[in-house]
Automatic annotation (TrEMBL):
Protein name in UniProt: Amino acid ABC transporter ATP-binding protein
Keyword flag Cell cycle: no
GO molecular function, one term: ATP binding
Domain ABC transporter: 5-242
Organism: Paracoccus caeni
Pfam families assigned to the protein according to its UniProt record, in alphabetical order: ABC_tran (PF00005)
Amino acid sequence: MSCNISISGLTKRFGTNTVLNDISLSLTPGERVAIIGPSGTGKSTLLRCLNYLDRPDKGLITLGDLSVDAERASRADILALRRRTGFVFQNYALFANKTARQNIMEGLTVVRDWSKDKARARADEILARIGLADRGDSYPSALSGGQQQRVGIGRAMALDADLMLLDEPTSALDPEWVGEVLDLIRRIADGRQTMLIVTHEMQFAREIADRIVFMDGGRIVEQGPPEQIFGNAQDERTRAFLRRVG
Ligand code: ADP
Ligand code: MG
């Protein structure tokens, strides 16, 4: 599925700390946007607010025909938003007491209300696509970090979401597992899945993203095509950040 997505005036405070300050951002169907920026700048909070893992204080989130206004969001609005977004966590966040297959089925049976049989068939199809067809019965503790994160990504893929949100999907991995996870995300990006990905992998962002968004201090400072941001950034804060990480 894909649709136009727009975020308008998104604001989030933790106590007196304004972590997101009037963020506006739109994505066209199939667009792949990478968010970069210093730590503590609100990147995770932005992704979490889009899935209502954190509740924004203000702002409007629109996915196709669904509009959710933070100041008036109902339980049904929030469920509808969750149904249409998939989240990939830095630390995988798999259920330890469920197998790889059950982890992938969970969102389909709980959020989507699919039957067990239908969810199992979909999970098996996804396990094959993430290269784990023979590991469906394995528990997370029996899988490598790279395999666990592929299951985490598979769980989001299974939802066929309008928007996939990936929060530093490789930064908790031992270096040996980073490549296989980036390969999987690259394949998803090649399939034109609309995505917002927070990453420290600058080379990867440059390669897969249509647009780079640089955030600092809870605001979008600058955005543009990779060649512009990496080659000719206009704002000194962007240039300073890129010098530090590059
Ligand atoms: P990033 O992902 O860019 O590193 P975060 O979105 O995780 O940044 O955090 C942005 C700011 O919000 C930080 O100052 C962080 O301490 C604060 N923050 C994040 N989550 C919470 C929370 N649940 N309660 C209080 N403060 C939080
Ligand atoms: Mg973060």
